[in-house]
Amino acid sequence: MSQRTYAVIGLGAIGLGMAQSLLRADLNVIGCNRGPGPLKIFAGNGGRTTHDPAEAAKAADVLFLAVVNAAQAEDVLFGRGQAARALKPGSLVIDCVTVKPAFAREMERRLAELGLLYLDAPVSGGPAQSAAGQLSIMASGLPEAFARAETGLKAVASVVHRLGDEAGKGSAMKVVNQLLAGTHIAVAAEAMALGLRMGLAAEDVYAVITSAAANSWMFETRMKHVLSGDYTPLSAVDIFVKDLGIVSETTREQAMPAPLAAAALQQFVAAQARGLGREADAAVIKTFPGIELPSKE
Q1: Calpha distance 182→247 (Å, rounded)
Q2: 295 belongs to a structural domain
Q3: Integer Cα distance of 270 and 276 in angstroms
Q4: Which residue, of 120, 149, 167, is where some domain finishes?
Q5: Among 128, 132, 161, 170, which residue's beta carbon has the most beta carbons within 10 A?
Q6: How many helices (H) and strands (E) does the chain have?
Q7: CB 9 within 8 A of CB 67
Q8: Is the predicted pLDDT of residue 8 greater than 90, yes or no?
Q9: Residue 45 — very low, low, confident or very high, per pLDDT cuts 50/70/90?
Q10: In sequence order, what E strands does 72-230 have?
C-alpha cells in the first residue's frame, strides 16, 4: 500500500508545528493556510503547500483541521473550502479545533454521510509543544478512526487520551480543560496585579510564587509576559473570550453553575473591550487599575 498523505489545514501557532512534526516523521504532508507567511516557512522546510482547502483535501488520506473556531471549521469542510467533498471516501478528518461537544457530534454525522471518518481530537499545549511533537490530545471517535489516525497522532503528540467511541467526549474534555486554563490565567493576573498594587516587584512576585505551593503552569508561563513587557500573542485574549464562551454555554446547557469561569470570562471580555484582543492572553492583567507594569526593554 502506498504511503498515506496528511494535510494540515490552518498553519497557525499550533497547526504549523503539527505539520512540521508530521514532516519530521518522514510522512507525506501538505500544508494549507490562507495567509502566505506560514506557507513560506513550511515550504522552506520541504513541505508541500496550497491556499486551497479542497486541493489539500483531494491529496489527503488524513486531514488535520487546526483552524481557530467552529465557524472556520464549518467553512473549510462544507462552506467555501469544500474540503469534505474533495476527500476520498474512507478518508479521515482529525478535528483539533476547540468546539462544543454538540458541534463535534454533528461533524461526525455529516462526514459519515459522505463516507468519511471523523476523530474529535482537541489539543492542549502551546507552540513549543506543537513544534516538538509533544501535544496532549483528548480524542474520541470510532475505533476505525483511531486506527487510521495512529501514525499521525504519534507524530504530533506525546500523549493521546482515548475518551470514547463517539465524537463529543474529546470536546467535552477540552471544555473542562479550558475552564481551568482560563480561570488560572485570570487569577494569575489578579494575583500579580495585587502584588504590584502593594508595591512588590514583579520579579519578586514571580520568583516567590513559582517556588511556592500556589504556583501553576499558567502562572509560570503567562506571567513571563508581564515580566518582559512583551505581549506578543501565542495564545491571544480573543481565544479565551471564545473558549470561556463555550464553557459558559456548556455549563448553562448542563444547568450547572460555574461562577469562577463566568468571572474569568468577564475579565477577558474587559480586556477585549480595551482593544487587547490580539495581544497575549496575559494582557488580561492590563484590566486592573492602579498598577505599573514592567515595560518591554
Answers
A1: 10
A2: no
A3: 9
A4: 167
A5: 170
A6: 13, 9
A7: yes
A8: yes
A9: very high
A10: 92-95, 117-120, 123-124, 135-141, 157-162
**Residue in 174, 224, 242, 286 annotated catalytic:** 174
Angle between helix axes 259-273 and 169-197 (nearest 10 degrees) is: 70
- The model's pTM is 0.93
Which residues fall within 8 angstroms of residue 227, CB to CB, at 6 or more apart? 202, 203, 206, 294
If asked whether residues 92 and 219 sit together in one domain, one would say: no
**pLDDT (tens digit, 9 = 90+) per residue, 185-205?**
999 999 999 999 999 999 999
Answer yes or no: is 292 within a domain: no
Domain presence at residue 148: yes
Q: Could you give the percent of the chain with pLDDT greater than 90? A: 96
Q: Is 1 exposed, middle or buried (0-12, 13-18, 19+ CB in 10 A)?
A: exposed
* pLDDT at position 1: 41
In 79-236, which ranges are E strands? 92-95, 117-120, 123-124, 135-141, 157-162
Strand partners, 8: 31, 64
Closest C-alpha among 29, 85, 23 to residue 62: 29
Distance (Å, whole) CA 68 – CA 263: 23
What range does the domain containing 223 cover? 172-287
Q: Which residues pair with 123 in a beta bridge?
A: 137
Q: For the segment 132-164, what is each residue's pLDDT rounded down to a tens digit?
A: 999 999 999 999 999 999 999 999 999 999 999
Contact call for residues 153 and 141 (beta carbons, < 8 A): no
Catalytic site includes residue 174 = yes
Cα gap 169→146, rounded to integer Å: 14
**Cβ–Cβ under 8 Å, residues 188 and 246:** no
